[in-house]
């Protein structure tokens, strides 16, 4: 039997034997260090890219403002040096004019007392003349002091004549439905907003009643004039009726679209 000391020596010799992978270790370590450096460089490059994106956004807004300013302002010609000099001269003239006005105000202030004293004499004269006029007015007959009154004809001429708004003439059809169209049953088949009491229900009821009087159909404009509703309400109602197949939309060449009840479901007869 071999001793334990001999077996340990053999195992240490086997571990010290170089392999093929030992030669690759330095290269792999260098490659790992290179990837770490490349990662750091990419992080810095990403920061540069983020800053560049922020700059592009800000500068893009600035360029948009310049473009909007350029489209709204008509530049006839570029500013020349002579125009700049003329503008500076104009500003200097304004400053000198304001300065001279201030000096004149300061110079005139000592003479205000003398002017006030000199104006007291004509003030008394004015008071005397006003008193004489008042006395003459008392002595004058009342008929001369009365103001002329406007006649009734002139007053009526000034008043604006209020005219009643024109009521559009209702269209009359030469046919009628037999039997009559049941408006309530049609509304019960429509969406809930037309069934509940409110503006949509009233608008839809008006449209259906008018269509029930005209078997040949009406255009949206005629429906608006007959129901006295705005065009947008008429459009909403007829679109819903057409979508629910309660009303037909007939489009003839060169004419506006007409909305009418289906003749197969709602027959009509001459009046």
Automatic annotation (TrEMBL):
It is found in: Chromosome, Centromere, Kinetochore; Cytoplasm, Cytoskeleton, Spindle; Nucleus. Its main location: nucleus. It holds the Pfam family DASH_Dam1. Residues 144-166 are annotated as: Disordered. Keywords: Centromere, Chromosome, Chromosome partition, Cytoplasm, Cytoskeleton, Kinetochore, Microtubule, Nucleus. One of its GO terms (cellular component) is mitotic spindle pole body. The keyword Cytoplasm applies. The keyword Nucleus applies. It comes from the Eukaryota. InterPro entries: DASH_Dam1. GO terms for biological process: mitotic sister chromatid biorientation. Belongs to the DASH complex DAM1 family. This is DASH complex subunit DAM1.
